[in-house]
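Customer escalation, tier 2.

The customer says the design service returned an amino acid string that "doesn't look like it belongs to this structure." They asked us to rerun it and document both sides in this ticket. The original structure tokens are below, unchanged.
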């Protein structure tokens, strides 16, 4: 289900980064957990996922911040071109990166525009009096929300603009946390990979590591396989380099989809037999044996039987 919203405010909050405030003139906005995102329809069939920066309790508006990517697919340029009063269609908020309520402590690590879901996490942590600290690495002079975060967190915010310094700060932060701390990371892919690798090397268990990718991971084309559609008794060939979603659509099988990045959850399909090759950021560990996100994920086995 989508929401028809109106741009209430648009503001450049850092070089190349614009914040949009989206309001719903005809009713209340649905609440959401911190770390949630919406999928924005960006014209010409493009749909991009953007994190909401509020804590999600009784929201009077949805706020997103978008980095303009000149060589992107045009989605960020579309958002930067929106003006006050323009209408925008967005999905209801979806949650794939919520804070763990039982965590003893929350360690947040953000790089660049990856600060947007972390701002929501900070607001939620302060609202519910949860221990939190934030390590924020950014380019000099390009630090969206840094001033606001400094006011919210005080000395619990640590900023860095130097990769070597960030590495030292990260190592110290990973070593100093009490058992039961959960780590959340969002930013460019190499930064996220580094944080997760260092955390694993420091002995952090996987169930306490949480990530949110704002740029889809580069995926290899994968090997071909057959999707067996149980309800319609059909086989659909999925070639290397073609997503399961596109193969199903080409075969005339209707499957809803939105972000096509493995983050929104719209194209989830039940798995009946076979072993999925998961490449999404949406499904939890206990959901991965019986479902697949067909926009990005594939099959480890020659055939994957799905409930279509």
């Amino acid at each position: 289900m989508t929401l028809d919203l109106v741009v209430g405010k648009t503001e450049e909050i850092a070089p190349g980064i614009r914040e949009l405030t989206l309001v719903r003139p005809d009713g209340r906005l649905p609440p959401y957990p911190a770390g949630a995102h919406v999928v924005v329809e960006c014209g010409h069939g493009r749909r991009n996922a953007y994190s909401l920066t509020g804590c999600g309790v009784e929201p009077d508006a949805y706020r997103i911040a978008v980095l303009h990517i000149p060589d992107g697919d045009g989605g960020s340029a579309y958002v930067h071109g929106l003006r006050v009063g323009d209408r925008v269609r967005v999905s209801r908020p979806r949650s794939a990166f919520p804070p763990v309520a039982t965590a003893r402590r929350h360690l947040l690590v953000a790089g660049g525009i990856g600060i947007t879901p972390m701002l929501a996490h900070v607001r939620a942590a302060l609202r519910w009096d949860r221990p939190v600290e934030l390590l924020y690495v950014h380019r000099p002079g390009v630090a969206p929300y840094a001033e606001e975060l400094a006011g919210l967190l005080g000395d619990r915010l640590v900023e860095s603009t130097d990769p070597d310094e960030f590495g030292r700060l990260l190592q110290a932060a990973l070593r100093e946390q009490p058992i039961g701390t959960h780590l959340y990371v969002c930013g460019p892919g190499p930064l996220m990979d580094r944080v997760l690798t260092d955390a694993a090397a420091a002995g952090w268990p996987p169930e306490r590591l949480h990530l949110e990718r704002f740029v889809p991971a580069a995926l290899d084309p994968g090997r071909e396989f057959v999707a067996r559609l149980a309800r319609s008794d059909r086989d659909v060939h999925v070639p290397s380099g073609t997503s399961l979603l596109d193969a199903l659509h080409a075969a005339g099988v209707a499957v809803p989809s939105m972000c096509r990045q493995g983050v929104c959850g719209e194209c989830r399909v039940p798995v009946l037999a076979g072993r999925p090759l998961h490449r999404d950021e949406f499904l939890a560990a206990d959901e991965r044996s019986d479902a697949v996100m067909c926009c990005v994920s594939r099959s480890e086995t020659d055939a994957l039987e799905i409930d279509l």
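Tier 2 assessment: The sequence is consistent with the input. The chain is about 20% helix and 30% strand. The helical segments are 75-80, 115-127, 146-153, 163-176, 189-201, 244-250. Sent an explanation to the customer and offered a walkthrough call.
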